[in-house]
Amino acid sequence: MPELPEVEALAAFLREKAVGKTVARVDVAAISVLKTFDPPLTALGGLTVTSVSRHGKFVDLDCDGVHLVIHLARAGWLRWSDALSPKPPKPGSGPLALRVHLDDESGFDLTEAGTRKRLAVYVVRDPADVPGIARLGVDPLSDEFTIDRLQQILTKAGRAQIKGVLRDQAVIAGIGNAYSDEVLHAAKLSPFQPSSALDADGVANLHAVIIDELTTALKRAEGLAAKDLKDSKRTNMRVHGRTGETCPVCGDVVREVSFADSSLQYCATCQTGGKILADRRMSKLLK
C-alpha cells in the first residue's frame, strides 16, 4: 500500500504533469471504484486541474473547485501516459478501474490488482466531504506534530500496542504497515510495546525517528516517475517485507508475526531484547 512518502511523491508528480491542463473526460471501467454521486463524475469535464495536494494517504486533484480525490488502498496504483488511447475501456476489463483524459491526450489510469477491490475515487466540492479525510489525525510532517502532541497521543492510547497506534489514520495520518515496521525498528521498539509505557526520552526518540524515516523516504522518492515509486519503497525497506533475511543493523534474522489479513516484520535483537514474538495468525489486533 502506498503510504505518506509515495502518496506525496505521486502528488508532486501530478503537479508537474497535470496542473494547468483541462480534463477532457473520465472513463469508468469498474463502477465500484466511485464512492460519490454528487457532483457527478461528468462534472469534471472541461475543468482545469489547478492544484494537487495530499491528505494522509489521499491524493486530491482540485479541478476549478471540484475535487477528484483518490485513495489507492492496498493494491491500487496510478499509471501515467503521455498519450492515452482515446478508445473507452471495456467495463470489467483487467485491473483498470478508471481513466482520466486530459486535453493534450495525456492522462492516467487507476488500476487495482487482486480480487479485493478497495480502490476508492470521490468527486466532491470539499475534500472534508470524504469521510476518510474528515477523520484524519495529525500529519507527521506538519508543524502540529510536536513531541508534546505525540506524548498526548501515546498517553491517550494507554495500553494499546504502539504498532496499531502508529497505523491508525484517525490518530496519525499517512503511516501504514510498512513505515510503522521501519519506524519501530529504527526506534528499537517492540511492535507490541504499550503506547503509554514510553518515558519522555523514549517519546522524543520516537518522534525524531518518525520524522527522519518519512523525510528520508520522501527525499528518495522526489523526482521519481509514478511507475518507479513502488520499487524504490520496496528496495529501501530494512525489515518490512524481509522475513527470513538478515537485519542490516545487527545481522539477526528478520522475523514475522502474521494476522488474519496482514503481517508485521521485526528484528528480535534490535527490538525485543531477543524475545521471539508469538505468531498470532488468527488475531484481529493491529488490523
Automatic annotation (TrEMBL):
Protein family according to the UniProt entry: Belongs to the FPG family.
Q: Which GO terms describe its biological process?
A: base-excision repair
Q: Which residues form the FPG-type domain?
A: 238-272
Q: What is this protein called?
A: Formamidopyrimidine-DNA glycosylase
> Entry's InterPro entries?
FPG_cat, FPG_N, H2TH_FPG, Ribosomal_uS13-like_H2TH, Znf_DNA_glyclase/AP_lyase, Znf_FPG/IleRS
Upper lineage ranks? Bacteria, Bacillati, Actinomycetota, Actinomycetes, Jiangellales
Q: Which cofactor does it need?
A: Zn(2+)
Q: Which organism is it from?
A: Jiangella mangrovi
Q: Which UniProt keywords apply?
A: DNA damage, DNA repair, DNA-binding, Glycosidase, Hydrolase, Lyase, Metal-binding, Multifunctional enzyme, Zinc, Zinc-finger
Q: Do you know which PANTHER family this protein is assigned to?
A: FORMAMIDOPYRIMIDINE-DNA GLYCOSYLASE
Formamidopyrimidine-DNA glycosylase catalytic domain sequence ranges: 2-119
Source taxon at top rank: Bacteria
Q: Which CDD domains match?
A: BaFpgNei_N_1
Q: What reaction(s) does this enzyme catalyze? A: Hydrolysis of DNA containing ring-opened 7-methylguanine residues, releasing 2,6-diamino-4-hydroxy-5-(N-methyl)formamidopyrimidine
Q: Give the EC number.
A: 3.2.2.23, 4.2.99.18
What Gene Ontology molecular-function terms does this entry list? 8-oxo-7,8-dihydroguanine DNA N-glycosylase activity; class I DNA-(apurinic or apyrimidinic site) endonuclease activity; damaged DNA binding; zinc ion binding
SUPFAM superfamilies for this protein:
Glucocorticoid receptor-like (DNA-binding domain) (SSF57716), N-terminal domain of MutM-like DNA repair proteins (SSF81624), S13-like H2TH domain (SSF46946)
Q: Name one Pfam family in it.
A: H2TH
